[in-house]
Amino acid sequence: MSTLVLQLPERRRLRAGAIDESAAPSRRREYAYATSDDGIELDAHGDAAASLLPKRSVVIAVVREADVAWHRITLPKAPAARLRAAIVGVIEEALLDDADKVHLAVAPLAVAGQPTWVAAVDKAWLADELAALEKAGVFVDRVVPMAWPDDPPAGHFHAPAEGVGSAQSVVLTWASVDGVANVRLDGG
């Protein structure tokens, strides 16, 4: 089964002194990608616009580390139709945005009544990114985070889209059973 893994561009954020995003010209989306024909060995990689991405049978979109907020909760015991509302009731005060503006994803194999992790992602941003891919004929089968709470702990260094090339822009992402932390190496 041939696979295309692509990284979604970093979500734009307001910065001090930033220009209103609605007035800014629309940005060109480029996606870092990798392909594998067998799921084991890397065949190709690069950067391309959505319309130029290689065609594969399975497409996996990866959300960057800073675009996912993790919340540790005890998964409520609720019927599937009411599970989202029950989860929102548990984490509503911890969310940085209105619950209707956030896409929530529960960890795989989560069991009701047991502690689990819930990922929160900006819903409008994610829908916009997926729509841009679909418009170019790239249909995403799965959306996964770049890092998630796990044991054993794991870490990696990366540079955010803004500030690439600067030694001060390097970030350490550390994932453990306690969550995921993004630490700028230039302090802060």
Structure in words:
Helices cover about 10% and strands about 35% of the residues. It has about 190 residues and is mainly beta. The strands form 3 sheets. Strands 3-2-1-4-8 form a 5-stranded mixed β-sheet, with no helix packed on it. The chain starts with a strand and ends with a strand. Mean pLDDT is about 85; it is low at about 15-25.
Mean pLDDT: 87
Question: How many DSSP H or I helices?
Answer: 2
Q: H/E order of the elements?
A: EEEEEHEEHEEEE
Structural class: mainly beta
Number of extended strands: 11
- Uncertain ranges: 16-25
- Main sheet overview: 5 strands, mixed
What is the end-to-end distance? 44 Å
Helix content: 10-25%
The quaternary state of the protein chains shown equals single chain
What is the general shape? globular
Strand order of the largest sheet: 3-2-1-4-8
> Could you tell me the strand content as a percent range?
25-35%
Radius of gyration: 18 Å
SSE topology:
Elements: E1 3-7, E2 31-36, E3 44-48, E4 58-63, E5 69-74, H1 83-91, E6 102-106, E7 115-122, H2 123-135, E8 142-145, E9 154-158, E10 171-176, E11 179-184
Parallel strand pairs: 1-4, 4-8
Antiparallel strand pairs: 1-2, 2-3, 5-7, 6-7, 9-10, 10-11
Gist?
With 188 residues, this protein is mainly beta.
What descriptive keywords fit this protein?
188 residues, mainly beta, five-stranded mixed sheet, three-stranded antiparallel sheet, 11 strands
